[in-house]
Amino acid sequence: MNRSASTQRYWRSMNDLEKTPEFQDLLLKEFPGGPEEAWTSTSRRGFLQVMGASLALGSAAACRFKEEHILPLKERDESRIPGRPKFYASAMELDGWAQPILVACYDGRPTKVDGNALHAESNGASTVWAQAGILGLYDPDRSRGVARIGGGAESDATWAEFEEFTKSHFRELKTRQGEGLAVIAGASRSPAFRRSAAAFRKFFPRATWTTWESAGSGAEEAGCRAAFGKPVRPRYLLADARVIVALDDDFLYARPDATRLAREFAARRKPEGGAWMNRLYSVEPVFTVTGAAADHRVPLRRAQVGALLALLEAGLVAKGLRHPQAAEVANSAPRLDAPGLAAHIAAMADDLLAHRGAAVILAGAAQPAEVHARAQRLNTLLDATGKTVEYLAVEEPDASETPVAALAQSLNEGKVGTLVVLGGNPAYDAPADLGLGAALAKASVKIHLGLYRDETAKKCDWHLPQAHFLETWSDGLAPDGSHLIGQPMIEPIWGGRSAIELLSLLTGNARAGMDLVREGIAGAEDAWRKAVHDGFLAGSAATAEAVEPRSLPSAVFDEALLAAAPPNGALELNFAPCPKVWDGRFANNGWLQELPDPIAKITWGNVALVSYATAHDLGIANEEMIRVECGGRSLEIVACTVPGAADGQLTMHLGYGRRDAGHVAGLDDDAVEAIGFDSYALRGTAGLWSAIGARVSGTGVTYKIASTQDHHMIDEVGLQGRADRVEDLVRETGLEEFRTGKQGETFAKRAADFWDKDDSLFEEHRVEGEYKWGMAIDLSTCTGCSACTIACQAENNIPVVGREQVLKGREMHWIRMDRYFQGDAANPLAVHQPVTCQQCELAPCESVCPVAATVHSSEGLNDMVYNRCIGTRYCSNNCPYKVRRFNFLNYRQDTWQAGNEVLKMAANPEVTVRSRGVMEKCTFCVQRIQGARVQSKLENRKIGGDEVKTACQQVCPTQSIAFGDLNDPNSVVSKAHANNRAYSLLAELNNKPRNRFLARIRNPHPLLALPMVGAEDQHG
Amino acid sequence: MVGEGPGGGSQTVQDPRMTLFQFPKWTDGLRPLLGIAAVLTPTYIVALFVYGASAETLQVGYAPEQPIPFSHALHAGKLGMDCRYCHNTVESADVAAIPALATCMNCHKSILPTAKISPKLKPLHDAWAGGQPVRWVKVHDLPEFTYFSHAPHLKAGVSCVECHGRVDQMERVQTVQPLSMSWCLDCHRNPESRLRPREHVFDLGWTTDQDRNLLGARLRQEYGLNPRTDCSTCHR
After folding, report:
1. In chain A, which residue's Cα lies nearest the Cα of B92?
2. pTM value?
3. ipTM of the complex model
């Protein structure tokens, strides 16, 4: 590919690097394909006719206020104040593990989910799925009641009818001890669920139980069993880890305890005051959040990761690590060719040995058990046990459970009379070679419990609405082993019931969810109430087990799999749960569909991620539809060339191409086209995470990928100017340069950062208020997880615009996560930068508004007044950071459609809901500032310097965002602004933004050069 | 211009600039009405704006009929009940909540709508028995893009009477102030004449011999008041 000569260090995409025509288009027009094109087909006369008619018909009714009504409660207790939120602790389960959350409820309905600060797993932060959970609760496409499904028709039924049916049917089954009864459920470590399942299986001893979790993997626990001979799982402690090696493990994002791991990792990324920094090596097939945060990254195919571990082990033995199987390890080291690999392995080995006891190796869920076993054994040999990793006991895998393949076989052989599906969507996400969807039809009676009438429901006889986690009592196990309690925030909107309630019903002993959960808490009422209040049972965290490494069989490698450039037909096909919709369960969640994924910034769909070299070899282009064949199955999907991908492989995210998800993700019944491509169609039992033997052929058809990576850029003139003045948007350097370089700790400062307001040529009139709000974002700790984007969307009623509008650059996120690459396109460095409204003291947007709809408050906020805005968009035109969002259409229209009233409940009542034609932007969560102000007035005090937490700040797992009062010299944000690493974006424009960024510091190994310009090249 | 056309016959070729102003033939009949339209159209537009801008709910004196004919003059005035007995959240929350039906029943479970007492009480007991909420009509209605919080105003010494008038003398609640943005700003810029000592905030009939402005100035300093006029104070 061509690299145009450019003085620009950072680039956002290949379009940017090559200055393609598409890129120029986006650069010159903030909203490409805009209204200019729409008018060419209408004549001037036609325009006047339309305008004239609407003026005459224009009724002034919209100007008049209608009567409003107040409906007070019949009985209201003193603690319930209308309009005041109440906060309740709860738990949210994903893939078997639960997160502690705190839910804000207004007037009896939950509106915002955050982390439960009382519990160490979250410390107040939460994941994108917890944030988006609210929209899932109020999804109008959720199943609204019991249904009988048959012959392609659905007819509504009631729980009473179902209970009537179960009485006779399951009583009959009981006489046969449950012969012919099969249950398939998701993996859940919830104690109540385990108890219910055990009771059910005891009641029906001959029934079969199948656990199927499409994004779950038992490899880590299997590896530990092999390595230690006892059932344990690792729990990583990164607080004191100096060297971290992540082998295909996106631990900063995708692990159940990612929130805690990210926090611990980030705590050691701040080099102030001589504090030590950790060093992260990441080996992965495509860029992930962890890879972007890593100091060194090696792109390798999934099959090659095990070989790298073997080479690393051999390298450690060669450098003197005492190893019980040293000779075997040295002899079985494979041959692996990859650019720079030997140097990286040498550096890793050097680092791991130099920091024994403070180093750790992690392996990801997609790696086979052998790799996990070897990695854990190496951890114990490196004295990591008890220091950077501990091992917690788990249950032995239940040998009496029926694997999903056996269940499919039983179904096909007609041995299953009654099938119960407890949540989950096996017809959609079970391995394609099992044909579970078709096999389901062979059971005589099929009962489905689910949130939606999805692909599986359509194949069943009875569909039962499931209660959402915010509607029901539940419990769960947190990754640290503690017992979490989930309480309902609202009555089940559609009369749903939870899985544990259904199981108790089927055994003829229907019990309420609360009783089933209560059983798990020993002790009196006080202990129970405290557990419910806190959200967890204090002191229930698991304690570490002692482990001894066992000898492992030698690793055997298929040299063909390790070849540098596998030909077409032998390509590696990798699957990964989507960073947004996970395994497809969140596909109908508009917020998650529209969230740009952290690396490729793709929205509304999935792609086949492939490297530039491989795409070139295969003869396929970016955004070209390709046909992928593997294992006798095929799929047409769009190819997307990305930097940093390993050669010879394609990676696809799961969870798309759904046909019965809902009006957001795809609904055949209503001719709603499916979003994305169903990668499950290619996924077979043999290669659940990685399959070999894929063949790719181009189709020549172009498919536009809705990616936001080139949106909202600084324009061409600005780019040139910047390159000339070397004022970079993202400033970073290595730790050595930071400590001992020419400019040392002030490397991030440029001339403009030293300007003071007294240097101004003209008199700046600013009103100073009691508080001076400011924000600081630390790029060294930000991992780019984008939880801030979703939290802001939930808090501020930001609309979802859909794929077509995203293609025009009209996504509405108030805080966007910019991602820049640096260096060689085959393996670049990546850095993330969240950009909000900079709340400039001399805002360019304020001076150009013709109606004064955006004015400066006395406390430094740039106020956006929606009711004054007439939509000239001059403010957005003038904003150099492009942080203003315009409501081109009435994006709330779907809320007013019949049947969608429940969507209105998701809105935060503290923030105005905007309609068509008004500009909006980040307000530094002014509603929270106002709330704190009212509280402070009632209590006769000032607002504390750190008291107000913006939504983005609250959710950030690494606590990268600091917000508060700059007038208070002790607040976190004041200290951040005074930090040597602090700089403003485009300071030379003299906007005086109240938001500062702290430059990113990387910690490369002295032996490895980073493709980064050193500090000496920066002049300021 | 006249020229030879393709069919051999002569045809008139129009100056292209003239075709822009050719109206369809059927509009000829409308020409006499042009004069009338010239007079009526501006009248219509003005009437439209006057009608649109004069929402009934925004007029001073708006006194809608309520489902239960509750009389503040009787309860707050004659019986001397404190505002906060029913509007109990006003000092700590944004809204001075309309009380729950149970608050009414605290007394009215003993005061029944017999012919002797009052037939007006019947809707109250019907509502309590029926279990449906009472649909009170909102009298002091601010637009939804405006956020107002009662608690800090009361804490500052602004009495109910300043905005709501002598509610304790109203048979039916009506608005006495425009509640417009300029009216709010007038007080925010010059609160002195509207302030009173905190202990008298709920004493709607309170008067004083002192000069209100001087008293207000003193209270402003004592309470440390600095009412903001930033847009984000109310609009978010």
Report:
1. A938
2. 0.90
3. 0.85
